[in-house]
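Hello support,

Our group uses your service weekly, and this is the first time we've seen a run hang past the timeout. The protein is Two-component sensor histidine kinase. I'm not sure whether the cause is the sequence or the server load. Input pasted verbatim:
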Amino acid sequence: MIKFPAFSMRNSIFARLVFTYLIVVVPIILLGVYLYQWSYHNASNDITRATVKQLEYYLDGLNREIEWMELQLFDTVEDSGLNKLSATWSLMDSAEQRESLNELLSRLTSFQNSSPYMKDVSVHIRPINKTVSAVNAVQPLDEVRFHTFNTRTGLTGSRLRLWNGKLHLSASKQNARNGEDPIFIVQIELDSEKLRRSLNQINLYKDSGSLLILEENEYTIRSHPQSDASILQFVQKASSTSDNEFRMEMNGKSYHLNKVYSQSLGLSVAAYLPEETVKRPLSKFYTWGLLFALTSLLAVVAFSYFSYQSIHRPLLYLVQGFKRMENGSLNTPIEHERKDEFGYLYTRYNQMLNKLQSLIDQDFKQKMMMQRAELKQLQSQINPHFLYNSFFILNSLARTGDLERIELFTNMLGEYFRFITRNGEDHVPLSEEVKHSRIYSEIQKLRFSRRIRVQFDELPAEMERIRVPRLIIQPIIENAYEHSLEKMAEEGIFRLTFEHTENEICITIEDNGSSISDSDILALQSRVENTVNSFESTGLLNIHRRLVLTFGAGSGLKLSRSELNGLKVSIRIRREDTKHV
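Update from on-call engineer: The timeout came from a worker crash unrelated to the input. Re-ran successfully.
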């Protein structure tokens, strides 16, 4: 059991780092955070109070204007000249009618000019079938407006009426007879553009904006019509609550939102501004911020230098040692005189180098030699049964005089024996391994073309250059034919497919042979998984051992029951390890 040497607190890197951090960095950071939060909180509260006061002042002013309009509205309804005009129109001659209309028009014009928020004032008079407007003068009776403002159906007490995208006020002179239309209706149309401009007085800051909302219909007038629609949606949602202050995140920016509601008007007015604007009052703390920044910079420099001397440089020596080890240099120890934790690591690193040197000679080289020997053994094992059948097929083709197929078959047979007998590299591109396996499959198709159906997928282009050990696919195909497909009385099916992900590639060979039981598959899988500590050297175990030696744990063969009801063999190769082959 390894025991760490005892370290004094004076030599402990951990203790020195904690002490330096506590003495230099923490007080400055805590003080800076406290001052910033305190300043931000005060600035936010000041802006909120100022904004709410401004919103309340705006609504009070708007309410006074509406009350003035309503007063003038009801004065107009009770105007003697208008009532006389409505009652005695048919008794007047044309001159008196024109004079009465001109007097009414003059009154309406004066009425309109009495408030900046009135766009038009109209009187819809049923007895004379005329509409008199301060803007449009005398027109035929506007039946649509007359019937629209004749009823208050659907309203919930709001003094303002939304119609045709505009806000209106109205009052009517009721008929003495119940159930009949009013004698006339006085209608005021508010100027939405001037209301929008009036909202600019609320915008205390450059990036702020404001909205006027009719709660009953969620009708909104924006000070900035081009403002983000998502702000409008948030404000409309917020206006249904009783709070006066909100925070919202939108398009990566934070916003402050303040809202005030007028019960008498049924209106809310809201103002929003980016959080950056709230932080602007903190500019008066610039001197303090600069002082904190300089102090923090000095602390960072001092801490960085100490960390470099105590941690980074010693770690760099250790990293360089590991890089040399990765490149195969196991005879370059780290020379040192340190007595702290890194000194212990350097000593253990040097001991590890010596141990690795002996282990490589005893274990790794032995395994690599075994891998080469097993490959040579696999290459030298030419199945006599396959060789006999190949010559039998060649003889049959010669008898029939099929020269074209004889040429094709001999070429495939030559390519097959050239690949398995060559003494070149132990690893080949996957495209070559698949090509050899496809040739073997084509040779078998000549034998069993009527009994066995073959599905051999194309190799994906991104897998072609992956280097793999030689002879990892064809022996599995040979195993499928020899132990399963050749013995089947009905039609056999052989299938080879490819799959790949970021972490793994998989080559699947499966058949529909039913001669192997589930227990046989489990037993064979167990033998494959224990092949590292076994000296058995059959085809499947040989392939699995070479895959594990080449690509590491997690790679190799996996056996299971195929969807075709036969044996399914999956060749799995960890993708992250293929780059090192």
